[in-house]
Amino acid sequence: MLTLKQSTMLGNVPEDWDVKPLKSMLQFDAPGDWGDDGGPHMVRVLRSTNLTNERRLDLSDIAIRALKPEKTEKLALRKGDILLERSGGGPDQPVGRVGYVAVDLPEHAFSNFLHLLRPDAAIDPSFLSWVLYRVNRTGRILRLEQQTTQMRNLNFRDYLAMPLPVPSPDEQAAIARVLDAVEAAIDRAGEAVEQSKKARLAVMQAAFHYEMTDEPKHDTEAGRIPQSWEALKGKQAFSVLTGGSSSVYALKPLRGDDKADAWFMKVDDFNHPANARRIATTQIGFVSAKNPSFKLLPLGTVIIAKRGAAILKNRVRTTAVPIALDPNLMALKVRDDILPEFFRYQLEWRNLARYVESSGVPQLNNKDLYPRWFVRAPDEQQKEIVAIVSAAEQREDSLRGKLRALETLKKSLMHELLTGAVRVNPSLLQTDATI
């Protein structure tokens, strides 16, 4: 039996809000049916894979199954329905995701791993979907999991009994409207990011398909390139520097008034938002004078992964601060007449996955890079290409920053609005208001 220290599954709520079990907020609920492989009545059947982690449905790949007409009619999805993942989840994703049905979906049913929740007329469907989404995202849903060796299942009886916040119908609608608006803004920002990414890639294609110059071209081992450009083997263009020569555990940690003047980089540091283009920081800083065995790389060194998924993700960065490397990373020092950023763009455009050994764990070594052909443009053209691509990067990064800010806003608003920590005055929301 579920017991809570707070009044609802999301926390305490204002005294003028009701607290009700989920079951009392529904007019209907029903388990799904996977149907048969074939039969006279074929319909679209949604699966767990059609639920996203963001409270919406992905209808791009729907299974076609045979169901009896009466079953199809019973399981037909209406606008305002909520699909609950009753079985599924994984190590990093609790069971209990929800998908909000935004429009009627006739001739669509759902599988036996999903469960239909149809809100009562007194409950705003979008509001309830946000509440259930929040229950899943906070991780409190873990208290309702029953895990077997192969599958995570919801204790559905306890799920239906969990106490949830219920403000007035007008406030429910207002809360849902604010959160829907933030989600719409996130969608627009995400689309802007994707468009800016395409623009950046188009600029890189123009640069390394030699569309930024109309000078005559000549044939080389690197292909047909502008007359003033030079084809270089990897060994001529750069030298591979060694990775970490000391274990990170040998680092003397910062103490007292110590201020880091160098950083130790691991593969995970590629994921830090500040390192989207250049390595500007890592999780581990240290004082270089106190750690003389750690070799620091020159600024502008190109960093790539030596093994693992980071290679396939095409992570290529240059160093903007003094860095010592983990042995799973590789450092490339380009020759003096090649700008590090020019080479980084070229390597990123060519895609590291092209150079990977074909079997087992992805790996890169000297022998994979030194025999490859690269190009060097004249100094002024290098500078021009770097300036143009860098501007495209800055535009994309600025939009990504706005997207992250909106995602942070959504997370905080969900907590504050769904628990009543911040109240919404429904009368202040105009019909055409947007965020």
UniProtKB/TrEMBL annotation:
MF annotations from Gene Ontology: endonuclease activity; hydrolase activity
Type I restriction modification DNA specificity domain boundaries: 44-186
Keywords: DNA-binding, Endonuclease, Hydrolase, Nuclease, Restriction system
Keyword Nucleotidyltransferase: no
Domain of life: Bacteria
EC identifiers of the protein: 3.1.21.-
Pfam families, per database record: Methylase_S (PF01420)
InterPro entries: Restrct_endonuc_typeI_TRD, Restrct_endonuc_typeI_TRD_sf, Type-I_RS_S_subunit
Record-stated family: Belongs to the type-I restriction system S methylase family.
PANTHER family: TYPE I RESTRICTION ENZYME MJAVIII SPECIFICITY SUBUNIT (PTHR30408:SF12), TYPE-1 RESTRICTION ENZYME ECOKI SPECIFICITY PROTEIN (PTHR30408)
Name assigned to this protein: Restriction endonuclease subunit S
Annotated organism of origin: Mesorhizobium qingshengii
